[in-house]
Design goal:
By secondary structure, this protein is of the alpha+beta class. Helices cover 28% and strands 35% of the residues. It has a nine-stranded mixed beta sheet with strand order 1-2-3-4-5-6-7-9-8, with helices on both faces. A hairpin with a 5-residue loop joins β4 and β5.
Length: 181
């Protein structure tokens, strides 16, 4: 459930909220992991604290100006930070791209699936999107399983679309349409 007052999305186990500067150290700890880096498009490795400190302050303005919704994935009971999820807002075409990462120590608990389902609901119910889409490295099929669990379908493969660490990588494209809109 979305709360416009607090700019949070609440699920059964999670609160998706704007990041705070006080999250920077934990973001740095979670992102300083090669297994996270190799499956993300833009995270640097190693991940310096300066990256988190520069990234976090942009979120509020992007959110309130309906450009980009970048949210911390946190435990509803304890507030513990598990990862991140984001949604771009392409207002002209009524769609947006999702992206997410969960700290490796939290993999396998369904947090990415629960957060993604909530963000898609936010896109369709609150923002009136017609389509949500996402891409993942072909070498990371677990991300595709998350997308499948929330009803997204494979739309294609962007062959050798990204160069990372000197090698070209395929990206797999998934999407979901809002038939109620």
């Amino acid at each position: 459930m979305y709360s416009p007052e607090t700019k949070t999305i609440t699920t059964e186990r999670l609160i998706l909220r704007l990041y705070k500067i006080s999250d920077a150290q934990r973001v740095c700890e979670l992102c300083n992991n090669y297994n996270i880096y190799k499956s993300t498009l833009t995270l640097p490795y190693p991940y310096p604290i300066e990256s988190a400190l520069a990234w976090i302050p942009t979120h509020y303005e992007n959110f309130v100006n309906d450009r980009l919704y970048e949210l911390a994935v946190t435990d509803k009971a304890t507030g513990e930070l598990f990862g991140a999820i984001s949604l771009t807002n392409n207002q002209r075409y009524k769609n947006g791209e999702i992206a997410y990462w969960i700290g490796e120590e939290y993999w396998g608990n369904g947090y990415a699936t629960e957060a993604l389902k909530a963000l898609i609901d936010f896109a369709f119910l609150e923002k009136g999107y017609h389509r949500v889409w996402g891409r993942f490295f072909a070498s990371n099929p677990s991300s595709g399983k998350v997308m499948q669990k929330v009803g997204m379908v494979k739309e294609g493969v962007q062959v050798e679309h990204i160069i990372k660490d000197g090698e070209f990588h395929d990206l797999v494209l998934y999407g979901i349409l809002n038939y109620a809109n």
